[in-house]
């Protein structure tokens, strides 16, 4: 379970990023660091970077290697980029197991091959024992603008005014519909259970998956204005970012949010809100209402979207993020104060 130190570190890390932004020149970036989106864009090249400190390194459904590859591919894909290459940099503690290292590297290679995105460059550093905990990875990825993104935006413009060229958190407007690609909470619960020995992992595995193939099919259908993978902070954090950056209200329907029974039971036992748990193979989409049914149909035909659902709408009738509950009331969904399950990515 998380402790007060985890909350403090989360706040410090976020505060450091926000404080650092004014000091960093943004150059000619079309989507810059200041936007705090999942990736930046410069000269129609999408670029993202991420560091991975997950513990344990190997867990039900994946490893730090497959997580690193998918996490970076997904960050490029959800802003509308077509991922085309990755880098990988390892920081290794002296004495680290070569057998474990081989498992991690093979999982990276397999995942990159499955996604069709090669790892083309990298770096390795070894530090003295005790300097870090075992093994950490930094991955960066680049992607290109694609014809399907342009087709998607053309379809959006058929239904409402739209001036952006990328799928940003700030693109939502009243009347847009929110779709979720599938079950939430599996990654965080599987990892926490395995790490702490709770035993839930026998039925629950991480949802780690590359989303670039799914995003390509969704963009080909068209009508998507925003997309984001609900990783750290889960669905609650993602929809709050949508609300804050787009300056709109979000009304969620609790009955529509797909939460597996195993995840729900584990959360009840542990006192964790499933909306705040990180995921690694899901995407939340903002779609013009006229295309919501069509996009949902494409999702449900894809292996990664068979549990997809419409989970809410953008409306000025509420402020911030509000959820219509199962019992008929309403409750505010706030941004998580810290990670309920730390070091899961």
CATH superfamily: PurM-like C-terminal domain
Instruction: Give the N-to-C terminal Cα separation.
Output: 15 Å
Q: State the name of the first-level CATH class.
A: Alpha Beta
Low-pLDDT runs: 1-12
What average pLDDT do the residues reach? 93
Number of domains: 1
The proportion of strand residues reads: 15-25%
User: Which strand order do you get reading across the main beta sheet?
Assistant: 9-11-8-12-10-13-14
Structural Rg: 19 Å
Question: What is the helical fraction, as a range of percent?
Answer: 25-40%
Number of helices: 9
Second rung of CATH, namely the architecture = Alpha-Beta Complex
Order of helices and strands: HEEEEHEHEEHEHHEHEHEHEEE
What structural category do the secondary elements indicate?
alpha+beta
The biggest beta sheet reads: 7 strands, mixed
Number of strands: 14
The coarse silhouette is: globular
CATH T-level topology: Phosphoribosyl-aminoimidazole Synthetase, Chain A, domain 2
């Amino acid at each position: 379970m998380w402790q007060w130190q985890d909350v403090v570190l989360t706040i410090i890390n976020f505060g450091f990023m926000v404080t650092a932004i004014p000091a960093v020149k943004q150059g000619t970036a079309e989507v810059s660091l200041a936007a705090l989106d999942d990736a930046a864009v410069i000269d129609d090249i999408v670029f993202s970077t991420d560091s991975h400190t997950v513990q344990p390194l190997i867990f039900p459904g994946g490893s730090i290697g497959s997580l690193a590859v998918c996490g970076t591919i997904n960050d490029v894909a959800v802003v509308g980029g077509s991922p085309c290459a990755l880098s990988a940099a390892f920081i290794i503690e002296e004495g680290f197991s070569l057998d474990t290292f081989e498992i991690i590297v093979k999982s990276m290679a397999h995942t990159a091959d499955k996604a069709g995105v090669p790892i083309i460059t990298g770096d390795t550093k070894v530090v003295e024992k005790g300097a870090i905990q075992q093994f950490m990875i930094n991955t960066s990825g680049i992607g290109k603008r694609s014809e399907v993104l342009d087709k998607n935006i053309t379809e959006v413009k058929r239904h409402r005014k739209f001036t952006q060229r990328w799928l940003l958190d700030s693109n939502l407007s009243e009347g847009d519909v929110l779709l979720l690609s599938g079950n939430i909470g599996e990654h965080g619960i599987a990892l926490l259970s395995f790490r702490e020995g709770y035993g839930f992992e026998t039925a629950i595995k991480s949802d780690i998956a590359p989303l670039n193939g799914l995003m390509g099919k969704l963009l080909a259908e068209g009508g998507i204005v925003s997309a984001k993978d609900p990783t750290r902070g889960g669905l609650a954090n993602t929809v709050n970012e949508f609300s804050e950056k787009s300056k709109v209200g979000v009304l969620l329907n609790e009955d529509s949010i797909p939460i597996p029974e195993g995840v729900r039971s584990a959360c009840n036992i542990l006192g964790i809100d499933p909306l705040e748990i990180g995921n690694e193979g899901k995407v939340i989409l903002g779609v013009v209402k006229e295309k919501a049914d069509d996009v949902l149909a494409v999702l449900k035909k894809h292996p990664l979207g068979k549990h997809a659902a419409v989970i809410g709408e953008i409306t000025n009738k509420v402020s911030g993020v509000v959820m219509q509950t199962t019992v008929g009331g309403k409750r505010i969904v706030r941004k998580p104060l810290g990670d309920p399950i730390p070091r899961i990515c």
